[in-house]
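User: Can you recover a sequence for this backbone? Please restate the input before giving your answer.

Assistant: Of course. Working from this structure:
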């Protein structure tokens, strides 16, 4: 039996599971830290100015980053002899004491990036013979002392990019015979000593991008190394470029080279293991892990992303547009995440050339339309995430050519209906998520209703529910009938939904009352509204405030919808006397504060929708009188934690939506974790 056959109104208990890290708050852990049962210790925050005392001596991992520490005493780490992972990045260190790491012979990973260190003591890394990864990038280093790396015989990766180094000591890397990756990009190197990389048999990636160098492979490696023609020209000057290459590429850019491939003539390396020199630097604002790149804090798309990238994560940035060819060089890309930005426009050719792309995420942006042909030329695409936007229609043939499409997520957009040609396009997907849209069940909903009945396996049809008219608001689209459908005509900025039924919305002599909301405020006078009004909607307006008194004298109200406005705060008294209201929708506003007592009169409230606002805190007192509340939605706010007693007065709560908040997953979330269990 398909989902259409299920009874409408079935209650679903939806739990947004929060998985807490294995952390404990026991007394043996410093107050400013979190200590895991597996030996991990995390100490973060601007309140930390010194290395915490009494760190567990059995700690195997110490993440002491993003603090205000300026100096580390030599004895601060001496007891932590079981450490294998030490992260001191993003602090305010300008120097390190000689012998600071003495005795930490088990260290395999050491991160000192993003400090202000200008010079290391010559013996700072001595005796760290087990170290495999050393990161000293994003500092103020001007010189490297001779012999500084001599004891790092097992080092595999060395990151020195984003410093101010002007020269290298002779043979400074010769002890690193196991090194595979060396990153020296974005320094001030003007020359490299001859034979600097001769004694490094396992080196297969050397990054010298963005240095004022002029060099060729013959200057870097023994005579057994030869150069192929450069593949790309951009941002890097080379002195030896074959004439054929110049003739071929001169139209692309000035004579700058970004890619230089060098091959060992004495070994038959396949192309996949060829030495790759002067290829790329991890773009600014990004973290790079092999072929995965994650970027944050960006207003523009990163430049110089390597063509070998398979995953590009650009979520939680400030990107606004995606232009044609934005990713044209990323021909190996398989995952592209553009969610949680401010993207309002994506050009038709934005994803051109991404023939291997399998998944694209554009959820939680400002999209209102999609361009026809946006996903053409992506034969490998399996998943498309477009949820949490404001898309109201789909262009004809927008999924043409996607023979492998598995899931397309269109939840929580602005679809009132879907045209037949759009539904025909969706039929190629295995799963189609359509819930949480403002489906308007008039005659234009019939194509969607029939499509749902035909494709029972593609979507959970019990969740695709009419939002308007209010008389059908608990009816699923696929179980509704054509008889009740009437033409509904409203202004584009309606304050009350218009229909022909006096009990559904405000009507006088069968004419709808539609006060103007084309301004930023309402008057508190409601005397022109009939006393029998049950449902009211004020949506998609520029209103920033609804004053106390607007709903006074409307004792029969059952549903209030105030979504997609610009409301910034809710005042105590706004809902006074509304004891019959069971549903209150306030999502999609800019609410930052709610006065205590605002919801106290809503004693019969069953559903409260506060998602997609700017709430950074919630108070237990807000919900203390809502004993009948079953659904509470707080997703996509700015919450980092919630009170541990928030559920005390909510005995009937069945659904709580908390996803997509910037949670601090510490001990304060344990009550939520236990409640969900």
């Amino acid at each position: 039996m398909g989902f259409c056959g299920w009874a409408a109104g079935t209650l679903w208990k939806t739990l947004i599971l929060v998985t807490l890290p294995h952390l404990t708050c026991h007394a043996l852990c410093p107050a400013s830290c979190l200590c895991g049962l597996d030996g991990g210790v995390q100490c973060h925050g601007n309140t930390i100015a010194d290395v915490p005392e009494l760190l567990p001596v059995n700690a195997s991992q110490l993440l002491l980053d993003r603090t205000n520490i300026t100096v580390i005493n030599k004895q601060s780490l001496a007891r932590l002899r079981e450490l294998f992972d030490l992260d001191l990045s993003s602090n305010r260190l300008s120097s390190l004491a000689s012998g600071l790491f003495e005795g930490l012979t088990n260290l395999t990973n050491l991160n000192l990036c993003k400090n202000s260190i200008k010079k290391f003591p010559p013996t700072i890394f001595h005796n760290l013979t087990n170290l495999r990864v050393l990161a000293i990038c994003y500092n103020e280093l001007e010189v490297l002392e001779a012999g500084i790396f001599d004891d790092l015989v097992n080092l595999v990766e060395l990151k020195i990019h984003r410093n101010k180094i002007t020269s290298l000591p002779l043979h400074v890397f010769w002890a690193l015979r196991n090194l595979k990756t060396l990153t020296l990009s974005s320094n001030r190197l003007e020359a490299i000593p001859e034979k600097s990389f001769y004694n490094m048999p396992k080196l297969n990636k050397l990054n010298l991008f963005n240095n004022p160098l002029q060099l060729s492979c013959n200057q870097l490696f023994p005579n057994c190394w030869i150069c192929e023609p450069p593949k790309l020209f951009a941002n890097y000057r080379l002195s030896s470029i074959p004439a054929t290459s110049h003739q071929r590429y001169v139209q692309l850019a000035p004579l700058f080279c970004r890619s230089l491939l060098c091959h060992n003539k004495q070994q038959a390396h396949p192309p996949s293991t060829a030495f790759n020199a002067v290829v790329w630097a991890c773009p600014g604002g990004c973290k790079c892990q092999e072929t995965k790149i994650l970027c944050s804090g960006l207003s523009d798309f990163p430049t110089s992303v390597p063509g070998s990238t398979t995953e590009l994560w650009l979520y939680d940035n400030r990107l606004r547009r995606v232009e044609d060819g934005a990713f044209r060089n990323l021909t190996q890309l398989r995952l592209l995440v553009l969610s949680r930005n401010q993207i309002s426009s994506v050009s038709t050719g934005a994803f051109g050339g991404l023939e291997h792309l399998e998944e694209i995420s554009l959820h939680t942006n400002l999209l209102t339309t999609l361009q026809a042909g946006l996903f053409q030329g992506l034969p490998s695409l399996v998943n498309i995430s477009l949820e949490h936007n404001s898309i109201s229609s789909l262009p004809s043939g927008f999924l043409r050519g996607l023979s492998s499409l598995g899931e397309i997520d269109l939840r929580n957009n602005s679809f009132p209906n879907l045209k037949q040609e759009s539904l025909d396009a969706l039929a190629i997907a295995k799963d189609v998520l359509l819930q949480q849209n403002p489906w308007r069940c008039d005659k234009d909903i019939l194509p969607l209703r029939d499509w749902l009945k035909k494709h029972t396996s593609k979507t959970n049809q019990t969740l695709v529910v009419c939002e308007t008219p209010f008389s059908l608001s608990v009816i699923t689209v696929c179980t509704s009938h054509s008889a009740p459908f009437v033409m509904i005509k409203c202004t584009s900025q309606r304050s009350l939904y218009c229909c022909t039924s006096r009990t559904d919305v405000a009507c006088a002599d069968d004419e709808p009352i539609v006060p103007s909301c084309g301004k930023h405020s309402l008057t508190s006078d409601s005397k022109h509204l009939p006393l029998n009004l049950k449902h009211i909607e004020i949506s998609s307006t520029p209103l920033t405030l609804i004053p106390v008194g607007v709903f006074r004298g409307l004792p029969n109200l059952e549903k209030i919808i105030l979504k997609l406005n610009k409301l910034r705060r809710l005042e105590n008294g706004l809902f006074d006397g509304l004891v019959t209201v069971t549903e209150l929708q306030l999502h999609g506003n800019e609410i930052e504060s709610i006065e205590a007592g605002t919801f106290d009169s809503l004693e019969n409230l069953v559903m409260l929708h506060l998602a997609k606002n700017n709430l950074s805190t919630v108070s237990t007192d807000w919900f203390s009188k809502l004993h009948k509340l079953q659904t509470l939605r707080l997703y996509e706010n700015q919450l980092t934690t919630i009170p541990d007693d928030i559920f005390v007065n909510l005995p009937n709560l069945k659904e709580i939506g908390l996803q997509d908040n910037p949670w601090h997953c510490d001990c304060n979330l344990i009550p939520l974790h236990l409640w969900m269990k």
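That completes the design. The first helix runs from residue 217 to 220.
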